[in-house]
Design a protein that fits this description.
By secondary structure, this protein is of the alpha+beta class. The protein is 39% helix and 11% strand. It has six helices and four strands; from the N terminus they run H-E-H-E-H-E-E-H-H-H. The chain has helices at 5-8, 22-34, 48-56, 78-88, 104-116, 118-122, and strands spanning 14-17, 41-44, 68-71, 74-77. The model is unreliable at 1-9 (pLDDT under 50).
Length: 140
Amino acid sequence: MAADLSQSRPDGPIILFDAECVLCSANAQFILKHDRTGHFRLASMQGSVGDALYRTYGMDPSDPVSILVVDGDRVRQDSDAVLSIYEGLGYPWRLFSVFRLVPAVLRDPVYRWVARNRYRLFGKREECWIAPPAYRDRIL
């Protein structure tokens, strides 16, 4: 069943992530903790909103090759998505934008290698990570 994205799309960027991946869910927790202004919303690829958005942008949510950050009509993926998240968290995390000096053609293969091997390197949860009640309003 497809999600009604017109009702669930918030103002501001949506981070699409893998809630079964230990690294990805740890990153989601980090974002929620450090995004003090509530700039980002998160949607797991296992949920209806995340599933629909992955499919909208031509990705298979059962085998995603990248994290996505959807901000209006702009979609970022791979290392660009990760850097846009840290930039959106403000200082001091914004300092990671220095990695934009490294061309994406060099950054993205490293990102993709980690993404392809994320379960082997960091583990896979038997159940999807669920945000604590204090953050549920930021989870789609």
